[in-house]
Amino acid sequence: MRDIFWHLVGISTGLKILLIPAYHSTDFEVHRNWLAITHSLPLNRWYVEATSEWTLDYPPLFAYFEWLLSQVARYVDPRMLEVHNLNYESKATVYFQRLSVIFTDLVYVLGVRSCLGALGLARDSQQHFAGAMLLLLNVGLLFVDHIHFQYNGFLFGILLLSIGCLIRQRYLWSAFAFAVLLNFKHIFLYMAPAFGVYLLRFYCLEQASVAAMAAAVVKLLAVGLTPFAVAFGPFVQQLPQVLARLFPFKRGLTHAYWAPNFWALYNTADKVAASVLRVPPGAASTTSGLVQEVKHTVLPAITPPVTFALTVLFMLPILVKLFRSPKKQSPLVFLRSVVLCGCSSFVFGWHVHEKAILMVLIPLCLLTLVNREDARYAYILGIAGYFSLFPLLFDPDLFIPRYSLYMSYVAMLYGQLYRIFPGFRGFRVWEWLYMLGFLAIPLYEHVLAFLLGLDKRLPFLPLLLTSVYAALGVLYFFGGYYVYALGLSWGGKVAVPPKATASSVKRKRKTK
């Protein structure tokens, strides 16, 4: 059993290699263009270049990462590094970019190993085995990185390394890793409040004297700000332009495909109300399929400050609980805070991408290993969250892979719940009914729509059904899990999280 982790790494890598020829999205061209920009242009033009519509809009460390990749890419196929060579995808280019994602996943592997060790899970325990399976074979990362095409794996690897350091009380290393992560992809700002509160409470304020507290704050700021200085220093003269690229508030409330969050339901309610009241839609429709600013027809318009205020408001309760939690329980409360901060941003954020659900699902895998109630909620969100990624894999050739990978993963997760937690009581009746309801969407999309002739009349209905139905599950998880994490009353019972720390699961159950 001690080598099973690396066997799973090998299985995961083999599966990723098999997916190399699969369909890839426009994100493939996005990253090819970024390779070309960083390789062919001087640094002061990286964030102003606009030959392609896919302009560079990640923080500078990711731009430096693309530049490093381009130093290898020039030996593979120099034509991929030409800025004006748009939509170029030679076979060599495809293999290079696909393999670069697989290679950089090594950081993710190290992050997974670090977190499993930090949680105190013995390497021959069922929890360790389950954690390795759920994280290394994560179907969401397979969908988004190795089919759709992105580099989320190594970014989540840095996140897991930061979490692992924090649980081990290596606070400065944790802060440094998280600051590095923010300079690779700024979407992880959603999790920053949880890290900030924890480091303030258990690193700075735990010091023995006021002078020691002040010294801790200075060290924390120095460690946390250094990556920002290194990353943004060369762009200091272009800072407004860089920030405009990083925070494009003119893209509209929702993405072209609605992420399964509160705003998907809000948009749907607006459409239904407009239909009932027979109000004609505006020029810019939320269902136009375009990334643009839109106005709702009946319901009040939503602005970025509104989404920001709601996001912060819903983060506050769990952050207060984290700040007040005893140190013995703090790692568990911290992990729940990371999940709920990420979920608050996903549910109420501005222009949320459907892929952002991984920011909730990946950390939730860790909580699945240490408490049965966390695991129960994780399964419900997994059913909805991973399913909501299907519209990214819309090519007919991907129907069989997407359904088979999804069903295999959720079946594996279900099996592990019963092996980790003997006597696992399962789910409530309405939860089973909700999860089984996902069977109706592919039944309609692939059978009933054609039989009823609706595939031409209502071509976007499967997307709408997926967004709205998955959003119901996301909001159910968000509300129920939040109540549970706070230890409040829910349905006549008191949801009190266990007092055990993450390390209490160590050697609880051996794998047979």
Order of strands in the sheet with most strands: 1-2
Shape designation: globular
Helix segment count?
A: 21
Give the proportion of residues in helices: 55-70%
Low-confidence stretches: 287-292, 489-512
Strand content: under 5%
The number of strands is: 2
Overall mean pLDDT stands at 91
Radius of gyration: 23 Å
Report the end-to-end length measured between terminal Cα atoms.
Answer: 9 Å
What key phrases describe this protein's structure?
disordered C terminus, 2 domains, 21 helices, single chain, 2 strands, two-stranded antiparallel sheet, 512 residues, globular, mainly alpha
SSE layout and pairing:
Layout: H1 4-18, H2 27-40, H3 60-76, H4 91-118, H5 126-136, H6 139-149, H7 152-167, H8 171-182, H9 192-204, H10 210-232, H11 239-246, H12 262-277, H13 304-324, H14 330-348, H15 358-368, H16 372-387, H17 399-420, H18 429-436, H19 440-451, H20 454-457, H21 461-486, E1 489-490, E2 493-494
Antiparallel strand pairs: 1-2
Short description:
The protein is mainly α and 512 residues long.
Could you walk me through the main structural features you see in this protein, from its secondary elements to its overall organization?
It is built from 21 helices and 2 strands. It is mainly α and 512 residues long. The protein has 2 domains: 1-247, no CATH class; 249-493, no CATH class.
